[in-house]
Amino acid sequence: MWLAGRHPVIFGAGLALGVLWMLAQALVPAVLGRAVEAGLAQRDPDALVRWSLALLGLGLVQAVAGILRHRCAVHNWLGAAYRTVQVTVDATNRLGAALPRRVAAGEVVSIGTADIEHIGSAVDITARGAGSVVGIVTVAVILLSASQPLGLVVVLGVPLLMALVALLIRPLHRQQAAYRDSTGRLTARAADIVSGLRVLRGVGGEPVLSERYRQRSQALRSDGLRVARVESLLQAAQILLPGVFVVLVTWLGARYALRGEISAGELVSFYGYTAFLVSPLRNLTEAADKLTRGHVAARRVVRLLRLAPEFTDPATPVPVPAGPGELADVRSGLVLRPGRLTALAAATPQDATEIADRLGRYADGDVTLHGVPLRDVALATVRERILVADNDAQLFSGVLRTELDPHDRAEPGAVAAALAAASATDIVEALPGGLDGEVAERGREFSGGQRQRLRLARALVADPETLILVEPTSAVDAHTEARIAERLGPARHGRTTLVCTTSPLVLGHADHVVFVEDGKVVAEGRHEELLAGEPRYAATVSREEDR
To answer: How does strand 520-525 pair with strand 512-517?
Structure first.
């Protein structure tokens, strides 16, 4: 109903045209019967011409209404399907970093590939479904006025046929829900395998995952066959039941005509009615099928839309003073001084990740900026002033220049300077088209180290007030890492930067180094001072050097 309400004029026009289209078809047998009765049986040429013109008018109305109804139906289908895509994308953006923890990737992919089609079809069928109901009611009224027994056959027979169809809807709904669940799980499994294929091959896990995927695929195939069995029965019912209905009404009409209870013209009309009823009855059974599929798909979408983000804006956001300020994490004791390049070395990498998440408001914690708690600040303000760049960030398909500067707000030369600081100039030079070259999905044409350098360049182009980098050089060689460590400080001059790393090359170029153990700051100073005076720090860094 919400999707239909987004386009009330087109949706309402589709319903009205569907009713007019089917009503014109329902009246054709009555006009044809009158033409036979008044024109042919009575040998009245004028009456024959009048009723023939009426029949032509109904045909024109049916043709025009059918064309316009179809246009509205296509518009409604596209509107419902792609509006679903829009609200799904909005929901995923609203969930942000919490999305991978709350929803499997396969679930989101299935919504965008299969569910939108079912939802669009459910909205599309409403016009034909409404017209079919009106057409059946119109025929029942006409038949009741001409012959009560035949009218009662329609009045009682149609609900009976729909009740038989309803017996198939419940198992179909159940099987489709199971099939949809299996599809989502298999898609998620495929996405996991593809994203980790290089690692799987390296550790020899490809055959194991391949066999598990094959087993899951066969389970999905079994679920699909169960759905197909019920759907085949439903499709058979769409042909068999209306056919039986036509035979029954035609047989009764012929008997009444032979007994003289109805005229030849009425017999022609009754046969036309029964032939006409095949279409609306099939439309109703098709509507039952598509509405069931749409309901299953809509439940999935609604489930995603109901997921609330982990963090929301406070009721009354507190403004933060302009300009650089101290960013402090109370739990760990870390304090970032404005305008400095600070390095955070943690004995356990997870501790560094948790601190970075708290500083960027991706995890709850007692963090202050300019002395103002971040939980009291609007999320948009936090995201604008604090950027957390980790190795989970992705490269998207498109032009490389747009990938590095998606908002097209960088100053002239800023992109080139960021590429130089990230030691990524060679990547651009090797790419056909340079900055105007096309990047494939997830940047798959680049190596792991190249993708990491491009992600670093993108973060530098954004030029936030506070930049938090999590292991920005973990996938590059020592020579490249040395160049990045040397250039990072000048590239971020006057800005607050935190680098979470245990690389001695990066630590040696930091203005200030903080050592964290068990989630707490235990030592601070220059890299050389900590190496000489803090054995735990030296042990952590030396393990990095030994690798």
So the answer is: antiparallel
